[in-house]
Specification:
13 strands; 2 domains; Rossmann fold; globular; 16% strand; alpha/beta; binds ligand F7E; UDP-galactose 4-epimerase, domain 1; binds NADP nicotinamide-adenine-dinucleotide phosphate; 7-stranded parallel β-sheet
């Protein structure tokens, strides 16, 4: 019989790649979507007929229980969250409700309706924040720098706690930034590649950004959803860092993206204080050796390939 997977956040970047991946493996895929006045399935439009959708919200326990009871999943991937760091300063309580307490609600639902299932929590390198060591591994202490990161730290700890309290198979993937042509346009990578395409096509003159000095360990989302699946095939629930092991600044990203279309970023980029954060995460770089050794996972897309893939996709989308 086909395995059954429940994905929360299926309409997001990672949800779309994970759904594709699991469908290819022969899974029955159940997708949790929240009610909205207009349909929001762009990223999964090509596979939507293969997915069984269930309406539920991380804020509503009864809806989660119903989704869990209906789908009776073998694997649960909790990808839903308020995931944009700046919004977590303007909506800190909502972020805590979605991104933090939402995890407990799903775990409670699992405990009551699918205790034998395997659970994946989408934890984040943002938990390391003001980093205590370089590179960061599974044992590096957390020092979160935003309400988003604080909520994710809660989500990580409650996942570990339910594993230890109730013996649930609950794994936490500590994923470093991962991007793709399906990344939301508010995140810096997509904002840049969309901006480069617009400038190249004569549709924009400038690109306004915040700090250019922050450094991130950027990987490809398609590679990272494979790691999520591998964590749930392992014989024990555990925590894993998923990263490339390389870090680049926003400035490096700009150089590669603008060079790819024959332009110099210095002629177009302006800095705007509106995009500066109250507290910044200066540098992240992950140590992926545990995932490599235990899961046999490794990234396949380099930084340059990622940037150029995203620029080419945005050029094509805009008709270039
Ligand atoms: P994303 O594109 O922002 O997608 C977030 C998803 O969560 C969307 O499907 C959204 O639904 C859903 N959602 C938000 N609030 C919800 C609620 N109250 N109830 C139900 N669904 C809700 O995020 P992503 O980049 O795919 O990331 C997936 C997960 O990994 C997130 O938890 C994120 O925090 C975490 N993460 C991401 C990265 C990264 O670099 N991408 C790194 C580490 C961890 P709508 O479409 O209706 O808004
Ligand atoms: O910012 C700087 C900004 O918003 C990256 C989420 O998926 O990854 C993501 O969080 C860096 C920061 O991602 C702009 O200050 C400069 O230093 O693309 P971002 P993020 O905050 O790292 C983690 C792992 C997650 O878990 C999150 O869910 O870029 N930056 N200028 C800018 N950032 C944005 N968004 N916009 C700018 O104009």
């Amino acid at each position: 019989m086909a395995k059954r997977a429940l994905i929360t956040g299926i309409t997001g970047q990672d949800g779309s790649y994970l759904a594709e991946y699991l469908l290819d493996l022969g899974y029955d895929v159940f997708g949790m979507v929240r009610r909205s006045s207009t349909e929001n399935l762009e990223r999964i439009d090509h596979i939507k007929n293969d997915i069984e959708f269930m309406q539920a919200d991380l804020l509503d326990q009864a809806s989660l229980d119903k989704a869990m009871d209906t789908s009776r999943p073998d694997e649960i991937y909790n990808l839903a969250a308020q995931s944009f760091v700046p919004t977590s300063w303007s909506q800190p309580v909502l972020t805590a409700e979605f991104t933090g307490l939402g995890v407990t609600r799903i775990l409670e639902s699992m405990r009551n309706f699918a205790p034998e299932a395997k659970f994946y929590q989408a934890s984040s390198s943002e938990m390391y924040g003001k980093v205590r060591e370089v590179p960061q591994n599974e044992l590096t202490p957390f020092h979160p720098r935003s309400p988003y990161a604080v909520a994710k730290a809660y989500g990580h700890h409650i996942t570990v706690n339910y594993r230890e309290s109730y013996g649930l198979f609950a794994a936490s993937g500590i994923l470093f930034n991962h991007e793709s042509p399906r990344r939301g346009r508010e995140f810096v990578t997509r904002k840049i590649t969309d901006g480069v395409a617009r400038i190249k096509l004569g549709m924009a003159e400038k690109l306004a950004l915040g700090t250019l000095d922050a450094q991130r360990d950027w990987g490809y989302a398609g590679d990272y959803v494979r790691a999520m699946h591998l964590m749930l095939q392992h014989d024990q629930p555990d925590d894993f860092v998923v990263a490339t092991g390389q870090t680049h600044s926003v400035r490096n990203f700009l150089e590669v993206a603008f060079n790819h279309v024959g332009l110099n970023y210095e002629d177009y980029v302006v800095q705007d204080p509106r995009y500066m954060r109250p507290a910044e995460v200066d540098q992240l770089i992950g140590d992926n050796s545990k995932a490599r050794q235990i899961l046999g996972w490794e990234p396949t897309v380099s930084f340059e390939q990622l940037v150029t893939m995203m620029v080419d996709s945005d050029l094509q989308l805009l008709g270039g």
